[in-house]
Amino acid sequence: MTTPAKQKLIAKKYNAWLCKLSNFKQSKVRRYLVVILLIGFASAGYSTLKYTQAASGDYDVVSDNFERQSLGSSWTVNFGNVGIVNQSDVGLTALSGAGIVSWVGSTLNADQFSEATISPNKVSSMLTQVFVRRRSSDSARYAFHYDADPNDGLVDEWQLKYDGVPTAQVRILASNNTVSGPQNGDVLRLEVRATNPVELKGYRNGALVLSATDSAASSISNGTPGLTMRLGVGTTTTYPTAVFENWSGGSLGVASSNTNSSTPSTTTSNTNSSTPSTNNNPADSNPTDVSPKSNSQLPSSQNTNTTSDPEQQSEVATNKNSKTTLYKVLAAVFASIIVSVLIVKAYLHFKH
Questions:
Q1: pTM metric for this prediction
Q2: Cα 262 to Cα 265: distance, rounded to the nearest angstrom
Q3: What's the burial of 334, exposed, middle or buried (CB within 10 Å: 0-12/13-18/19+)?
Q4: CB within 10 Å: which end of the chain, N or C, has fewer?
Q5: Strand partners, 147
């Protein structure tokens, strides 16, 4: 028979056990709360980091120095015999006359860049091109190159081009014949931003050469960056032949409103998708269009292009992209906090 003294002792021990259990639960809840809040802050911190990257410059940057035996799975050869040359460059490894290669090693934003250094061993007859947003459905791409086919009687000039399609669909978005052509060792860079209109800028050694916009129905909203190489019409070379020494690509941050370039540039806004550029090069009849070459822009009577202010466009893009990115960051932060609170409330409800 349990005495009153024993009953009191048991009750006291039971109450002490309940108190410890309650403290344990509270401590466990606090630990869960700390972990959830840390996850929320980490998510907010990651979002803030992405916003900082986007606001300050390039991010998700990838690069390739081509110092190996084979091109590898990070690249897709779209046309020609493209491969590694002398374990140091990318170029044409066998007779094909032209080559196109796209980066597929990572997924980049639609606002992206493609940048390459011309090999010191490139032959003068080989033409070079960097491109962005190559569309897989029809091979269309935005390209930047120096149009210098020999013996064709046409003006040598820098071009921003809607390329990779049959000749009737090819469009010259902007051209500039006041800047000399690229030399071996030069760095070519093409940037693309936004849609409707698409905004393009081409650089040589960091100096702006051309800028343009594309509002045509066929404009490209997304795709992959990469490289194009082609022998000039009527020229030959020995194989393998090196073309590019290295390449880099990545996602673009918010555009700067300061172009800061003393290099002359031509800016056009192309809104007429039915206005093709004429082209005497038979290679352009191929839907993969590996040829950078085209005649100058159509006469003004046949061309609806209008001049636009690149600095004004860039400033508008900066404000728009900054606000959009900031809204996304704030949404992510608030979502993290709300989810954390809901999880804690649900835990407390079911435990008590």
A1: 0.66
A2: 9
A3: exposed
A4: N
A5: 157
